[in-house]
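Sequence only, no structure available. Ideas?
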Amino acid sequence: MNRFTTNVGLILLIVPSALAQTPAAPPHDPPAGFYSRNAPKDLVEFEMMTWPEVYRAIHHEGKTTALFYTGGTESRGPQNVNGGHNIMARAIVKAIALKLGNALAMPVLPYTPNDASPQLTGTLGLTPDILALVLDRVSEEAIITGFKNIILMGDHGGGQPDVYQQVAKKLEDKYAALAHKENRIQDVHVYYCNEVYAAAQDDFNKFLLSKKLPTGSHADISDTSTMMYLQGKSGDYTRLDLLPAAVTVSGPVPSGVDGDGRHSSVGLGKKAFDMKVNYAVRQIKQLTAAGN
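Reply:
I predicted one. Tokens follow.
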């Protein structure tokens, strides 16, 4: 090996190391001229904010919790649109952020673990491994942006709890080790909020049984009612004339429903929605309090 090759090799080894050890310059407050007087009130949706508005929320309003609530695109019976999980996720995570008061709702991921079907032609899915990579990446990006608490949760069962738990633990362990290495208190945390999905769903099913109403697991009363509640008078999210078909059907052309959604109603939808929001807020407060 000649001297030139040796020197180049040393440079390649030294430069990345030096760059990695260079601390990032502290951010500067945006000038007043970067803020609009016409901004909507109660901004909590990251994708509906400008970057100065996000900066102000993080650095001056204490909104240092990032809520990642995944949705999903899948067949949801003949009565519900395929993007129902995304529609519900956007509304639920916004409500959670507003109720917490110190959080921003991050963009909803529209794809989660699932498999397309040539018969039930409404599903576009990811693998669990891909979801894990995406959750890992967006969590790290949020941390760089300035968020201190990252909350992972989802509206679709695919990937829960394993992927969400594993990613949250991996990143929590990483930032705990970093704080220990630097002899300081850990100031970044990543949590999986499971109660918004599992506990809220289980308790809503108990409520249905107490009213002698049928339970299910997909495109059932819970899902269909929530869509009815969110659509208001628009009728955009459900095909109400097909409620009689919102029931499990086997055979060569299945319905795509697991359960019985024929008794769905706006009132039941509001109850299911509120339970998810309240369960999430309660658990997130507990998680973040324990981490401080």
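The domain at 40-247+257-291 is CATH 3.40.50.10310 (Rossmann fold).
Hope that gets you unstuck.
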